[in-house]
């Protein structure tokens, strides 16, 4: 039987308990919202919002086959929150245990790992004690980062910071340039920064009073954007080979510098462009002379000498004022129409020689070239030179590129009028010379030189694709005939035994140019060999140049390097042996 009085007592007790619990909550709520509000607000304010830079990855630079020449690697910035640093003691893992140590000991441990001055670290931490963020050191390797993290110092943090590396070292260092820290400083790294550059993003996270990152508190304010991939036309293996050949031959000659370029005739693509000496972008301090940090082929014009002559002969042939068999009597000294005391000479002493136009080119006669040039007006010859690309930057528009110099008509005196036709009294870059040979090999059609084939965006689209439109400079007949005349140079000229390659027809021209300093020609020389292979259907143009050689001061100094590079071009691009025979063009009459 149920006792009504007991039931009422239990119900009353339950009500009292409920009211007691509610009362506790009310009191607690009042305590939090009223009594302790200021204190709690103060503690909440100790939660800190930490800004974080999210780094985009700078784009890679790759050769025509995808070989990486410049890339970004993971590096880490070591940071700190000075506001959390207690200058007497701090926690740090030591001998496998997390213990309290003097803060100076922790700073020294960071310094030892990061190879940083501990005094600099201490100054950084104490400069603004209320600061929530400061850099201790930047761009450390993954190994260093792991060692710092293993210390477990509570006020030390890190940020991922991609940095630049050049996995193939000095290969194409003259073209690629370098990005030593926060900005590009040379070469394609700087010139093509609009393609390669990344965009950093930003985010924030909440940190507790003791510096612990609060999970789930990250807010992305701006997404990072990676840079594009820059595609080059060069072949890294061929580039390496050219650099080795230039180094070996340049050292043997005691030359100041050397340059070699290989251009594909059909489209003007630069397959290799090597300099010696050159720079390793990973260690630019190893190349103390800034003149060796870039690409001389674009930035360093010189008086090219006789390798210019094919442009002159192609112009005269195109204008119809000579043929390969045109007769000319070449005297030992030429003074006609020149200022008193001025004269044009050949590189060897001789009396009157009856040469054909082909013989003039084969013997590299300055006098014969000057006589034949007078068959065409200066105005027209000047127009041909500019049509070949002299006096203008190439389409590559390389950083620091020079356009060389062909004097304006009204500044061309009676001697420069003739000497520029054989490469003196004017200047050109190796790139312009290579472009001229490309034009002759391509049936008289100039294709814009191309080093960058495009910028590949993150979505795979290709932008900044260069123009492929060609421009006719001379007729196909004039270009072909000039190449045939150059074959006679390669088979009968002074260096034919050095540059010839069994089974292949070669068209070539040598050049030995005097070097002017302070307006006066010196005994120094710039020596070159340029040519086309195979001559019957040119596929590649090659130019090799050495400046101021000591042991040999004629174009023969460049011939071994030209021959070696031409052989490598044959191997690299699998050029089949030539068909047909060298044309039989008379050189005398």
Total of helices: 19
Largest sheet: 6 strands, mixed
Give the overall pLDDT as a whole number. Answer: 90
Q: Note the quaternary state here.
A: single chain
Walk across the major sheet and give the strand order.
Answer: 9-3-2-12-20-21
Q: How much strand?
A: 15-25%
Notable features of this structure?
589 residues; alpha+beta; 6-stranded mixed beta sheet; 19 helices
Question: Mind explaining what this structure looks like?
Answer:
The model has no long low-confidence stretch (mean pLDDT 90). Helix 9 (236-253) packs antiparallel against helix 19, helix 11 (309-318) crosses helix 17 (476-492) and helix 12 (357-363) packs across helix 17. The strands form 8 sheets. Strands 9-3-2-12-20-21 form a 6-stranded mixed sheet, with no helix packed on it. A 5-stranded antiparallel sheet has the order 14-13-25-24-23, with helices on both faces. It has a 3-stranded antiparallel sheet with strand order 1-10-11, with no helix packed on it. The protein contains 19 helices and 25 strands. Strand 13 (257-264) and strand 14 form a beta hairpin. It is 33% helix and 23% strand. The radius of gyration is 37 Å and the shape is elongated.
